[in-house]
Amino acid sequence: MSDLPPCPNCGSAFAYEDRGLLICPECGHEWSPDESLPAETGLVVKDAHGTLLQDGDTVTVIKDLKIKGSSSVVKVGTRVRNIRLVEGDHDIDCKIEGIGAMKLKSEFVKKA
């Protein structure tokens, strides 16, 4: 029995190795053996209550947030859809309806 992983494209167990690449004879997909290992992003972002956040989540603001350089405020309870996680001090990149593109700190949101 082969120790090679199944094809990530079609799931076939008949993959074989050729010149450092893995090849699926059923669908013709070629991939590197390193790609078959589960990818670790290393980016772990948690909300104010410790719940793990992921790209595409919807969150709710838990505190009034003043917008720097503006007289506008993001009010408590504002729902933010389709967030993107980024590295840095402000670890959530999003668009807030009526305000526009913003970066938020995860400590001021909870998962909806």
From TrEMBL:
Every Protein YjdM C-terminal domain range: 45-112
Pfam family, one: YjdM
Domain Protein YjdM N-terminal: 4-32
NCBIfam families, per the entry: phnA
Family listed: Belongs to the YjdM family.
UniProt-listed PANTHER family: PROTEIN YJDM, PROTEIN YJDM-RELATED
Protein name from the UniProt record: Zinc ribbon domain-containing protein YjdM
Native source organism of the sequence: Denitratimonas tolerans
